[in-house]
Task: inverse folding
């Protein structure tokens, strides 16, 4: 199980229409061998439909799905050899843990001895060996989830598909299982495709994230690249939180530009190779709340803004502030609480500052 | 249960009266069966088991019991097979048309059995099915289908369709999914349906009066004839045996349900 190579999957212009409603609209995506890809989006974004199309439960209206270059679009799910962990796990309630995990092997007509060995290996993989003879209802949510994982991996599937695998668990357990799932992915070296609406889960587990909205693929890339360089307002807003500042582009040059909004001019630096927008065009900036600092007296930054605290919340790790500024309206800023003598009060005047590299130009979403 | 209204005196009285109304006619059979007289009556000088002895030694009664039993078993097999397949089919296809089919399947319950019996009499004649074991089995089996459709559909309503998806995703064919996932989940429903279908055939009289005469002489038919011809207390003894048997079946049904829920 550990030496198996993952398989590569590609979606080519896949669409799924229900009457005049487009659940998925021309989505093209490559998933590399052994990659952990997460399809992330709000409910109704088409992410589950795409997963179900990959699994074979949904037939695309147009486009094709290829596994290692071979077209599998017309193949029924039982012929695809994909492991799947369903939302709510879909364990067979009348079977014990062992019987559940052995099911895909029984279907394939494996001998009892082969079955037993593989089931034991799969249960050890998810550390459930001692629960072999329990029924699903005698297990906790986290244990059930692991049974579902073992059952989906035991038959050496070409791909592992995960449909919101952690959504039924409480927050703490979810964080634990995120780590476990990631470690499991490293151990088995298979291609995982995960669906979630939880951005934290997507960021922490995936090699790559594909963000979907209204059935369209908006942007995909490594978690860090997506978080740092969102291309649209939706991505900046859905993956993490963001302030949005709009204005007119001035002083456009390679490596940066200035954004003019009323009396204020904001300095924006661009990474190498990114073309600046043309002078005089409208531009929208995404500015992460945690990239804004509170400037002490006498200190300066690329961008400085005066304002007053409207409201604040203490989050343990930091403060979340809403600050009213005259130049740019309301701004959200997050400050680390530790090693900061800052004691927020409502109405407190503050000076905000941020680096020219902190703000990222993003496109308005297509309607 | 806490937090609910307590029943008032009137409500409680009505409930007991209803229960008594349901049970008393059944209970009255018991002393009658134990009568020491030679006609249908309450015991006068003491109780006696002679009528039970008569029933259990008479070839006519035993023959009818056996005939009723085999007919009921065969009819149950027919009802369960057809009813289960129908319920699963309707559930899988699940369109408006299948709702119609499900209602159609309940017709034998809705239509008075005498109407059904007249219909059967008309067209069993040319088919040579009158007074035949097979004819009664078909009649009872078909009219037993609704019970199975109802209980199996109820069981399927709580079946998580993702289990079927999960089975398919793991490579199971339709027949494997049916055998290993769907049927075990709905087995209690099938058993319940089987028990009701069996009871339905076991005590069915109206259709038998029309489509059977001499060769097929079921237990209800023999009781009916006994009542009409001579008021033999043996009928009461048979009735007691019937009640006990039915009670046993219903208890089996309950036990099965409890096990599947527990």
Result:
């Amino acid at each position: 199980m550990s030496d198996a190579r993952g398989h590569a999957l590609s979606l080519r212009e896949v669409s799924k229409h229900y009457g005049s409603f487009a659940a998925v609209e021309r989505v093209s995506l490559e998933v590399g061998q052994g990659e952990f890809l997460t399809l992330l989006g709000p409910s109704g974004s088409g992410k589950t439909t795409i997963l179900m199309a990959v699994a074979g439960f949904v037939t695309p209206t147009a486009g094709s799905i290829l596994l290692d270059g071979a077209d599998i679009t017309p193949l029924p799910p039982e012929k695809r050899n994909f492991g799947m962990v369903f939302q709510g796990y879909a364990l067979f309630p009348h079977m014990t843990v062992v019987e559940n995990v052995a099911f895909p092997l029984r279907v394939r007509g494996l001998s009892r001895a082969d079955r037993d060995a593989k089931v034991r290996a799969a249960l050890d993989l998810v550390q459930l060996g001692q629960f072999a003879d329990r029924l699903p209802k005698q297990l906790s949510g986290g244990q059930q989830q692991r049974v579902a994982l073992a059952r989906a991996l035991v038959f050496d599937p070409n791909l592992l598909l995960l449909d919101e695998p952690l959504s039924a668990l409480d927050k703490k357990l979810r964080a634990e299982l995120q780590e476990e799932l990631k470690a499991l992915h490293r151990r088995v070296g298979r291609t995982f495709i995960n669906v979630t609406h939880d951005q934290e889960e997507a960021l922490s587990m995936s090699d790559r994230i594909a963000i979907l909205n209204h059935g369209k693929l908006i942007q995909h890339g490594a978690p860090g690249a997506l978080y740092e360089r969102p291309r649209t307002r939706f991505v900046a807003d859905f993956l993490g939180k963001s302030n949005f500042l709009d204005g007119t582009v001035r002083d456009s040059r390679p490596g940066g530009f200035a954004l003019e909004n009323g009396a204020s001019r904001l300095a924006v630096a661009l990474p190498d190779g990114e073309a600046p927008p043309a002078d005089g065009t409208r531009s929208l900036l995404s500015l992460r709340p945690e990239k804004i600092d509170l400037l002490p007296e006498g200190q300066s930054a690329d961008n400085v803004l005066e304002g007053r605290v409207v409201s604040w919340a203490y989050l343990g790790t930091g403060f979340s502030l809403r600050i009213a500024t005259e130049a740019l309206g309301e701004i959200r800023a997050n400050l680390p609480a530790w090693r900061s003598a800052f004691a927020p009060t409502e109405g407190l005047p503050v000076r905000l500052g941020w680096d020219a590299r902190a703000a990222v130009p993003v496109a308005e979403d297509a309607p | 249960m806490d937090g609910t209204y307590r029943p008032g005196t009137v409500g409680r009285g009505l409930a007991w009266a209803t229960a008594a109304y349901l049970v008393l006619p059944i209970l009255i059979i018991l002393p009658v069966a134990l009568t020491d007289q030679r006609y249908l009556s309450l015991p006068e000088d003491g109780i006696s088991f002679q009528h039970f002895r008569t029933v259990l030694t008479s070839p006519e009664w035993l023959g009818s019991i056996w005939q009723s039993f085999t007919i009921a078993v065969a009819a149950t097999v027919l009802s369960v097979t057809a009813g289960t397949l129908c319920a699963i089919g309707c559930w899988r296809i699940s369109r408006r048309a299948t709702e119609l089919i499900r209602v159609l399947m309940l017709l034998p319950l809705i239509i008075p059995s005498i109407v059904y019996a007249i219909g059967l009499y008309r067209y069993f004649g040319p088919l040579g099915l009158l007074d035949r074991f097979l004819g009664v089995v078909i009649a009872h089996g078909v009219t037993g289908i609704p019970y199975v459709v109802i209980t199996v559909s109820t069981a399927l309503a709580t079946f998580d369709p993702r289990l079927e998806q999960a089975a398919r995703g793991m490579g199971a064919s339709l027949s494997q999914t049916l055998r290993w996932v769907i049927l075990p989940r709905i087995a209690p429903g099938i058993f319940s349906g089987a028990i009701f279908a069996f009871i339905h055939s076991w005590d069915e009289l109206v259709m038998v009066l029309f489509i059977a005469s001499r060769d097929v002489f079921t237990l209800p038919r023999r009781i009916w004839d006994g009542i009409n011809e001579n008021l033999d207390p043996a009928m009461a003894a048979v009735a007691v045996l019937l009640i006990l048997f039915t009670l046993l079946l219903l208890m089996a049904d309950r036990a099965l349900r409890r096990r599947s829920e527990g």
